[in-house]
Amino acid sequence: MAGNGEDKSYLQKRPEEFKEFFLLSSELPFKGKVATKKDVQDGKAVFNLDSKGDTTHHPLDIKIPFFAFLNKPGKKSPNMVVIMQAETLRGDTILGYRESNGHFGICSPRELEYFQSSQGKVY
Questions:
Q1: Could you tell me which of 62, 103, 46 has the C-alpha nearest to residue 80?
Q2: Which of 3, 57, 80, 118 has the most CB within a 10 Å radius?
Q3: Which CATH number does 30-114 carry?
Q4: DSSP β-bridge partners for residue 58
Q5: What is the C-alpha to C-alpha distance for residues 108 and 34, in angstroms, rounded to an integer?
Q6: CA 69, 106, 62: angle at the middle one, nearest 5?
Q7: In this prediction, what percent of the chain has a pLDDT beyond 90?
Q8: Reduced DSSP (H G I as helix, E B as strand, rest coil) percent helix, strand, coil of the chain, to 5
């Protein structure tokens, strides 16, 4: 998050102020159930945890989709992403995202920087 004298003024803007927003705003969220392999194959979900009936595995009831910045190791600046899927397993939160370049991935909430306008409104 903030620190090291880095300029984080972009977090004060709204997602709509970034060109990436228009590339990401049409993504549909996957919510209401945990994703199956078929959901991923059909392009409805980003990931499937295949938890084999683990009772701690469930969809996370948060407001999705939402926009944030993903910090990747070795990258100078974070990428704007849309969070489209949220599940929890054994107390860990796993989020599925899409980048504006079309790549999908998973991350944890601590890898994200949140727009000030959405802080406190996601969880």
A1: 103
A2: 80
A3: 2.30.30
A4: 88
A5: 16
A6: 70
A7: 76
A8: 15, 30, 55
* pLDDT per residue as tens digits for the range 55-97: 999 999 999 999 999 988 877 788 999 999 999 999 999 999 9
pTM, two decimal places? 0.88
In single-letter form, the type of residue at position 86 comes to: A
Cβ contacts of residue 72 below 8 Å, gap of 6+? Answer: 78, 79
Query: Is residue 1 within 8 Å of 113, Cβ to Cβ?
Result: yes
- Ordered by start, the domain boundaries in the chain are 30-114
What integer pLDDT is reported at residue 2 of this predicted model? 46
Residue 59: HSE in the Cβ half-sphere, 13 Å Cα cutoff: 15
The two structure tokens encoding residue 105: 């991935």
> Are 87 and 80 contacting, i.e. CB atoms less than 8 angstroms apart?
no
